[in-house]
Amino acid sequence: MNDATQALPNFRSDNVAPVSPEILRAIEAANRGPAAAYGDDDYSKLLNQRFSTLFETEVAVFPVSTGTAANALSLATCVRPYGAIYCHKEAHIDTAEGGATEAFTGGAKLLTLPGRHFRIEPPILREAVTGAAWGVRNRAQPDAVSITQASEYGTVYPLAEIAAIGEIARDKNLSLHMDGARFANGLARLGCSPADMTWRAGVDILSFGATKNGAMSADAIVVFDHNLVEPLSYRLRRAGQTASKMRYASAQLLAYVEDRLFLRLAAKANSVAAYLGAGLAALPDVRLVAPVEANLIFAKLPALAIDRLTANGLQFARRGDEVIRFVARFDSTEQEADEVIALVRRAVTGPTSIGL
Amino acid sequence: MNDATQALPNFRSDNVAPVSPEILRAIEAANRGPAAAYGDDDYSKLLNQRFSTLFETEVAVFPVSTGTAANALSLATCVRPYGAIYCHKEAHIDTAEGGATEAFTGGAKLLTLPGRHFRIEPPILREAVTGAAWGVRNRAQPDAVSITQASEYGTVYPLAEIAAIGEIARDKNLSLHMDGARFANGLARLGCSPADMTWRAGVDILSFGATKNGAMSADAIVVFDHNLVEPLSYRLRRAGQTASKMRYASAQLLAYVEDRLFLRLAAKANSVAAYLGAGLAALPDVRLVAPVEANLIFAKLPALAIDRLTANGLQFARRGDEVIRFVARFDSTEQEADEVIALVRRAVTGPTSIGL
Amino acid sequence: MNDATQALPNFRSDNVAPVSPEILRAIEAANRGPAAAYGDDDYSKLLNQRFSTLFETEVAVFPVSTGTAANALSLATCVRPYGAIYCHKEAHIDTAEGGATEAFTGGAKLLTLPGRHFRIEPPILREAVTGAAWGVRNRAQPDAVSITQASEYGTVYPLAEIAAIGEIARDKNLSLHMDGARFANGLARLGCSPADMTWRAGVDILSFGATKNGAMSADAIVVFDHNLVEPLSYRLRRAGQTASKMRYASAQLLAYVEDRLFLRLAAKANSVAAYLGAGLAALPDVRLVAPVEANLIFAKLPALAIDRLTANGLQFARRGDEVIRFVARFDSTEQEADEVIALVRRAVTGPTSIGL
Amino acid sequence: MNDATQALPNFRSDNVAPVSPEILRAIEAANRGPAAAYGDDDYSKLLNQRFSTLFETEVAVFPVSTGTAANALSLATCVRPYGAIYCHKEAHIDTAEGGATEAFTGGAKLLTLPGRHFRIEPPILREAVTGAAWGVRNRAQPDAVSITQASEYGTVYPLAEIAAIGEIARDKNLSLHMDGARFANGLARLGCSPADMTWRAGVDILSFGATKNGAMSADAIVVFDHNLVEPLSYRLRRAGQTASKMRYASAQLLAYVEDRLFLRLAAKANSVAAYLGAGLAALPDVRLVAPVEANLIFAKLPALAIDRLTANGLQFARRGDEVIRFVARFDSTEQEADEVIALVRRAVTGPTSIGL
């Protein structure tokens, strides 16, 4: 009773993935006898310790059920109701979370910025922040910056760029939030330490995604700025985001980082994406919209070709008339990528009228 | 790495329970290959159908990650920001959800009512509703009633009482919400159909609990009033309550109702609770605070005796100086109940000074 | 085109009063030529200075258009969304402001307390605060106390009581808000200094009412706790409470406190109230519900008598079957009080069936 | 004690204006004896009738204390928390009200549109609305359009443009809100009836500004869509926007529309603005940024010249390096305009280095 039997490979989203076997086994192992609720179980108690080791600093970790909750509650803890959050104009928090950030902040403003390769550019941010209406009572007051690593278009901020953004944030007393729905994919790309990509570069609070990369239903908020821990803990409970049987989410998260599983899973996804991206880029009439640096491929091709792919039943996400997105997962294969490349080749080289 | 090896039985809460084997198997079975996200998978598509069969009417079902989310989002969909919700003064929504209902409604008011056996009494409700400041602009306007079945103290509304409340609600154009965190325990007690205990008695929207009774992390909102379906669906997404890999929650919920598993699990919990309640009530200096009609036992006993139980390491919840709560689960046993009874017996019959 | 020609005296509310001549003249005087907007005019600039002199400490003053705005925005500045506010169960903020405090705080909870003479009793408050669920994530966290001086029933907190409440607040790190819709009436009663009745007794922020006591449309928030000034200033603008032509509100407030006008006006109202209260108390079948300490009289008399007064066209507020409220104003007279006493005498001594 | 004695004319904003004599007289006339509170007085009761006559249809009128309150509460009544509002990217609701609309709607989104002359262009609106993510749960749902008449840059929507926008709104079931902070200036420009400029063109709810054009503190919400009346009335009270002594606001509003006073006042302001605009446009190095159609003049001139004007003490608003705004009022004169023109002439023709 699932879609596994379908003929064509599915590159629609990372969310279509199953749970990785290691994580499912961890859930099963946690399923023995009673355990204290609301985070007082042994798994949850380990979380802070394991993640503090992973991040090489003392962090607080809060499992949440979705990335939207992670983002919106992180930001609500950093931002006053009359505050403003700088983000890229393609940021998921602005375009695809149903206004969760506005809801949980009590109506704060998202100020969107342009930026090449779907990343905030430090000079653009600095200009915006410097020119903000500081202290003007009828204007939203800058409180936070949110960056997405890897970005919504699969590009990856280099460390120097995060650090430059972190410096601007620190200069202006803004919190720096990282939407890490694809944290592992970004980290695998950079090959640096989790610490380097986060708090050492100025990140105060992190939406640590696991669900897209092999977990079942376990994202987390990782808090580097200790002042945010207590208020966040209340906001989570009030938001219905404090799971009673938390051991199952915690067990997933522990397994996810155990022996760097999360990096192995992400590296696999990135690798298939790179392979698929290269294959597509070599096709006539196909152009990559953004460099493939993580597990997402955005390709521009003729609308007619896209229509054909849709008609064929290929699973992908369309973004406008001539742009499509493919997402590679930890369970994707080069063979599946080859199939997609072949299908796209046929679609773009077919007759120019839509005789499907 | 869990608490299973502890010496004493754990009757602290239903939330300490593991996942029932049937539900864990359902999760494992769902873990094959890719599946569409955000509820477009085969499992989630089945939910509405199976629950409509179960409830003998067309319902919409939305999985959520916690009961708090279920309650607060259900009520936010029924109630205007300047509206009011009638509930019992011991209602979980007022006493133990961190203000989630106030947060998600935009600041609606909870109007609490007294009532014997921790249930709203229809005459008290009617008097409150009738005497409300209808149309007065500086007073909260009645919009909903929320009842908890089984109640926070383990008592169960008889059908006639729900119907009487439903009639008041209908007369006054109020929505009727049921907090069914222990829906199965209430239903097992009454032995009626799910339809009889809900929409046939006037319930418009139901927080359908499964987590406390054997699921891993899967509660749901079941909507009987079709007008609420669309607005609820937006509020859920905005609240970070729309799981991307929804198949896992849906698979749990399907298994939970398959072959009435939920009733078998609840019947077991209720049965152990009845056994434990009877055993405790027979002890000297022990009095049941409320009739044991579901899986909760509230007992009054001397503070000194409670201190002894705590010192012994018995797991229960203390509610004030002289009241304690025990909760039986699907995986509780009469043997464990016997152990508790023996411990309590020793605690209440010990010397009157606290030589522990 | 107003109600001045009506035959019977009007004791319905202080809000039915006209503007005192002194304040109207101040408005007229302010109406010359252009003046800077949003508080940068000369009148508004004087406000902080004059009120700081009046209160013998440095305060910040913000004119607002209503007492509801003053209360709700004061409290929203003191209280976290997951916070709680202690107030008397008859507090206006809970019973008569349409949920403004819940709205502006983002859904904080009002925790109501009983208390003789419609005042919070320090021991009851201390017990409530001490027994609060501090640090428990699913329970509202105490953040503020709100007292009303003079109270909603016209009683007045003695200084020692305010100080005792202030001490509890300070001990527990709660903000102390005073709803001073009838601040002048309370102050005139006590005969102490504004400083003694506020910050010296622990008050952090004050809703300073002027509209009920002779102003046209000018209440204010007076801030003693300097940490609240900046966040309040943003919240006011965002709430639509920062008047562009602020000079007119400021001119009213300056005239209101000039030469202690506000105390003279309040003393007059209090005096007529005392006279009316004594006259009513002397009648058969009439009993004062609360001591008359400010400008409000609550009297209990037979329902039939109240019906007769209503039928006669007397202007008062009915509070239940057998309780009515009279409010004396700066422009009320003893002659009007005599008229009311005579009417009530006839109403209570008439035949026992309602032959009106 | 005001700024009237200053040497230079003040064209900084319409908010610096005093109250027109007619309106001050109306306030004085209302100040006789007691009058019912919260809108039950004779003045307030007349409001609906007089405005219904003025607008040639049955309307409900609610006085409010500021334009920000008028806008935010109007929109909050039209828009779901997960809804979206289309407005021009220079709309006051987005740029200058401290996030009031986000606050009162519970976090709805403002979607800003470009448009020549600072007006929404119907084709751009239609494209945006048509391309909206209707029904997509993680995207804000279009609920309203807000236009500003006269616009923030003093341009005026022709009737046909409003009607075209109204048609789009009707087609898509969106509410159409008009921010009429300068309603009279727009209406005076068009010379049409209030009905033509509002409901006949599809406007559902109107922020009716009076404060900028001669009132003291009295804006209003005029409701054409009867479904909005009741919910708005609750929201106003909850927002602290229901004045107790409402007669004074109502008396202002009645005087404001009596014998079309509001149009005479606006015509005067528009006329001085046209005169000033023409005079400035004729100067070397000065260019009008927008056509002068109401009472605002935006002029581009060298930064150095602006610096000189500032140094001279001329009162205007700077909008960026090279743009300044002048605002003419009902009490502005052509003589004052001449003074400004002379000052600007000297500023732009002075030496090119800033020897002030």
Automatic annotation (TrEMBL), chains A, B, C, D:
GO molecular function per UniProt: threonine aldolase activity
Enzymatic class: lyase
Gene3D superfamilies referenced in this protein's UniProt entry, alphabetically: Aspartate Aminotransferase, domain 1, Type I PLP-dependent aspartate aminotransferase-like (Major domain)
InterPro entries named among the record's database cross-references: ArAA_b-elim_lyase/Thr_aldolase (IPR001597), Low_specificity_L-TA_bact (IPR026273), PyrdxlP-dep_Trfase (IPR015424), PyrdxlP-dep_Trfase_major (IPR015421), PyrdxlP-dep_Trfase_small (IPR015422)
Keyword Lyase: yes
One BP term from GO: L-threonine catabolic process
Quaternary structure and interacting proteins, as annotated: Homotetramer.
PANTHER family attached to this UniProt entry: L-THREONINE ALDOLASE-RELATED, LOW SPECIFICITY L-THREONINE ALDOLASE
Protein name per the record: L-threonine aldolase
